[in-house]
Design brief:
Blueprint (H helix, E strand, L loop, with lengths): L2 H5 L4 E6 L5 H15 L2 E9 L8 H30 L4 E7 L1 H11 L5 E6 L8 H7 L10 E5 L4 H7 L1
Parallel strand pairs: 1-2, 1-4, 2-3, 4-5
Length: 162
Amino acid sequence: MTEAASTSAPRVFLVVVDDSQELRVALRYACRRARRTGGRVALLYVIDTEDDGGQWMGVKELMREEKRAEAEALLSKLAGEVEQLSGGIPVLYVREGRRRDELLKLIDEDPSISILVLAASTSPDGPGPLISYLASKYAHRLKIPVTIVPGSLSEAQIAALA
């Protein structure tokens, strides 16, 4: 490790957690890069609150609590995997709102986040809504590099790249 690397803050590789199959690819890639560079992995889970508008207040609050519990359980599980793969404890973020908006807010608020890692969808419909959004007219709002990993990469291919 060079002197510059040892005195500077570690790179933080941010992975957005969702229910896609590509999540595993992005996660493995970020973990391998973090391990190799002495960095850390951060996980962002955004609870979508867009469709909560028409519910009664008590039901809405119960649904919100259930979504948060699900988010925390998933992040806890993934945190164990990240620790095993990267050798470090990940930073965990749970936010509520629109995924793309909360992602950009987090990147603006946390200067320790160095690189956003996303995996492209294997669907013929395109790379996925978040990548499409960020690659469109909103790319100028990003303050960090984005690594887009093909969602179809095998473990061996990830190891060769990272």
